[in-house]
Amino acid sequence: METHAPVRPSYDPELADLLADSPLPTTVTADMIEFLRANPFGPTLYDLLAARALSHREVAIPVAGGTMVASVFAPTTRPVTSVIYHLHGGGMIIGNRFTGLDHVLDWALEHGAVVISPEYRLAPEFPAPTPVEDAYAGFVWAAENSAELGAGPDRILLIGTSAGGGLAAGVTLLARERSGPVAKAQMLLSPMLDDRDETVSSRQYTQTGSWSRESNDTGWHALLGDRRKTDAVDPASAPARATDLSDLPPAFIDVGSAEVFRDEDVSYASRLWEAGVQAELHVWAGGFHIFDGAAPFAALSRAAVTARDSWIERTLAR
Known about the structure:
single chain; 17% strand
């Protein structure tokens, strides 16, 4: 019986070659979580600090049931004017506070920003709403300590990647609901927003890419369990479910055209515009999930980083 390849946007040729040679699994399953946590990808703290004029310290932030450690990075050669609050990716199940920090720390140096990156608790040991509540607690701490850090509470930029992008969006919803601190803006990089998995792009990228539909199932099930795809899901944990996106901070959203999150991210940007919120959207043709992290020297990755750099500069200049 003849089978047909699914109809979907192809990967950028430069990225496709890298993906084909990648040793990483196409699908992350629950039984792989422990191994992936024990063998984190990306640079170590030593690597991050080796070539950058940054200080580093750890702080303990109060959260429900205890404290959460966060790393605080500060430029040592220029004054501080802003705070970047960073939430790492990892599908809600893996990653740590150093994951994905390379470009963020470059922005710290370029723009005189303190970077706060918290070690929010992960599913399945800590299901929703713990990760987003941890993320919110860290954001409140950043606002309360912003003067000591060298900036004002109105100078905090929220940045999150993948799961961290979903958490950053959730933090803005909680802050609005609770009359909490207001972020200057939110940068959502390929954010993980919708547990329902009903979009075309979610179906297109089955058993392929750096984060497949199956991996996404693993992450959402760990976070939500039997609540997933029911009305019991809190919009702060799955922000695509929020019915009101008004009065949120300006947003930058980018995503690859060849990944699971494409359609939910485009929809979120459109709904922000509908609600009167300013948003800048980029859909990178042929990009798989977090392609810039996997292939930083690819032409598409350089274009994406340039667009982000421009938005950061314009945002922090205001």
